[in-house]
Sequence to fold (335 residues):
Amino acid sequence: MNNTNKQYLFSLDLFRGFCGYGVAITHLYAFVFENSFMEYLSFLFVEFFFVLSGFVLYPQLLKVLNNKKNLLKFYQRRWLRTLPLYFISLLLVSILTNHIFTLDFFKYLTLTQNIIPNFISDGYYPIVWSLSIEEMFYLLFPIFLIKVNGKNFLTYAFFIFIFILICKLFLAPYVEANYYRTGTFLRLDAILLGFILCHFKNYIIKRHFIILSSCVFLLFIYFTNYNFFISNKHISIINVTFILLMQFTSISVMLAFIQLESLLVNKRLKKFCTLISNQTYSIYLLHIIFIYILKEFNYGVYFTSFIYILLLFLTSSLVYKFFEKPILRLRPKII
Fold:
């Protein structure tokens, strides 16, 4: 239960920043310029976040497993990291879209908007379905670890992953394709997969050829089968296959980024990785505001894209420095 590697990986910072800007840019082209392929690509960028989340949380979760007193501190750390900025961004988006204090607003406020199919009437903050999954994982999985409280925790984690997969196989014919991808309880396995992966990271990351070849192969499958997956999304087995493809593609891409660690020796490169990593959460939450505005003031693809990325960079940098960073200092340390 002590399989933790204290080496800081700037490659994961780079990967996090890559995911954040990837989600934001693909959403711009999907929602403003109505590019359906970019929306399809955004699915994969969001999936990257899930695997990354489970991967980086592994050491903290092991500390919860080893000492029950860390449970409350884990919750405090996660909620101080995620909820304050989320509540502010929800208020801003709700005011902008004229949904403040509606019933849907309170569903978003409690992050229950995707807990069952068709629970929300107007999905005016469509991007935060993934945050609902993250928060549910933060809430439930540490409790599971405490209940297991033994050396077989990884075996039980595998059982949970298989159990969720079986549930999805059973529910696939009865659940609409988009909910199958975004339903809160149906996607907990995505983060769990990253947790399991981190346990074996010291063994896996040495397989350089396997990682890179798998990454190229799975990305090729994903990119070249856009029409197949979209046109057949009403077929349950296709939905199951699509989710699994995204999950294993996410694993291979993240592991490929870790291979870059040896190249990130320059201090400026490391600072750049840290910079874009710090920007990621505010980019994720706030980019939809700029999309709503730019839908009304569209000045063409190139100029709009430039203004959008500039706004993301400046806003996220300021938000991290003056809002997120002071709050992060308040987080307790896990024993």
